């Protein structure tokens, strides 16, 4: 074979090798583009899915009916009134059924508050919070608030409210998260355990209302529960001048005279 032919074959082989390398490079680029497109597609789908989920959550929150208990009043119907409308003074109480300090307040002032309300000297507005659920975990504050609102529907809020505080579990014990426990305690209130009450508790009829009530508590900038205001003025929690049942009576009498 002549030298010229041998050089021609080498040139042909070199061109073939170069073509193969170029083809490999094109194939590699094609694979990269395909993978990249697939990745973009996945991200796009994820973004759409996230948007749908976010919108679904918003729709659920806004479309969920906020069912206030019967007789609730005040802004957004977040207050449960107890006592006579003709009473000159109003005691506003923010409480959480899992809150130990709220139980202590109730054990100390329950009799005095009932006495003043029964005599028509004081109207009480109860607002329910669920801060212990957030602090300790669980859902007992929310479940108990819903059950108390169900008792309000039945016209037995005060009695059931007192029973819940009298039977409050330890703060770390989320016993009130069980509807069966709340219904069991309702048995201590004459005539409260009925089919409508049990359904109201089990269905969480007033959950959205209780959640909104807790949001109102947070927005109010109050220091904690219990927060107790007489005619809009905070009268509880002053260490230098602690409130007593006798002082509460005196404050109400003075406010009524004024």
What are the key terms here?
single chain; five-stranded mixed beta sheet; 9 helices; 5 strands; 9% strand
Can you tell me about this structure?
The chain has helices at 3-63, 100-118, 131-136, 140-153, 157-166, 179-186, 195-203, 207-219, 245-257; strands spanning 80-82, 89-95, 122-128, 227-230, 233-234. By secondary structure, it is an alpha+beta fold. Helix 2 (100-118) packs across helix 9 (245-257), helix 4 runs parallel beside helix 6 (179-186) and helix 4 crosses helix 8 (207-219). Mean pLDDT is 83; it is low at 32-64. Helix content is 59%, strand content 9%. It is built from 9 helices and 5 strands. The N and C termini lie far apart (128 Å). The protein has a 5-stranded mixed β-sheet with strand order 1-3-2-4-5. The chain is globular, with a radius of gyration of 34 Å.
